[in-house]
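P.,

For your records, the input lines for the assembly:
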Amino acid sequence: MFDSGIGGLSVLRALRAELPQEHFIYIADSGHAPYGERDEAHVLARSRAIARHLIGQDVKALVMACNTATAAAIDCLRADHPGLPLIGVEPALKPAVALSKTGRIGIMATRSTLASARFRALLASQAARASFVVQACDGLADAIERSAETGDTTETIALCAGYIRAIGQFRTKQGKIDTLVLGCTHYPFASVQLRDLLGPQVQIIDNGEAIARQTRRLVASAAANESGASSAAEGSVSLFTTGQPQALQAAASRWLGLTATVKTLYI
Ligand code: DGL
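Structure tokens returned:
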């Protein structure tokens, strides 16, 4: 699995709960981040390079634990590797529509995800069922990376407050926004700060658990077609980064209780 940085750890947390006996290889592409404010060609090239590297490690499935990479690259990676179970992450618009009572939904995501053809098609497919306010959250993923390292959430709180204000009035009353979709895997690590800003009633949706269930289904059906595929009694996590290890090391320990040493990758 990979992300531009530490955000995919929110997906790894759900994957470990769903598939406790699996071995996970996590790559943070921190040397080439953030993805969300880069062009699609950059994110596609990085996704291809990382996918090639992971497939070379004989993985049984690949999770793109990043909305921005999924939007830019999942179609190409599917075409490049047709036999590989490949799981992507997209902003959870359909679950939000199902949960919202007011029919008004806010979406926080990276600029690049929101500009992608894939997201625009998803939004158009749900447009008749609810009204959506989308907000590009420049700088938020980076602020969360820094907060993992320092423990200081001041910058995260200030950015979240500004973006929430820009989306509009959140409340469960008619005409107000009652549901917020976290369309970037970094943002669940700001959910405490977002909850403080939004109050207890507004629903905050991230889809880590849904991704984990989908991964379990795909891995199980691939294993059924392949004799000899087996899992160990106890799972494991290996952590890699293409940049500085500090943020991933701190985030893995702070938020997932992982002590494995982060190794540097040159890809
Ligand atoms: N975590 C990534 C996502 O889900 C994006 C962060 C970034 O901008 O690199 O979109």
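Two observations worth noting. The mean pLDDT is 95. The longest helix spans residues 40-56.

Regards
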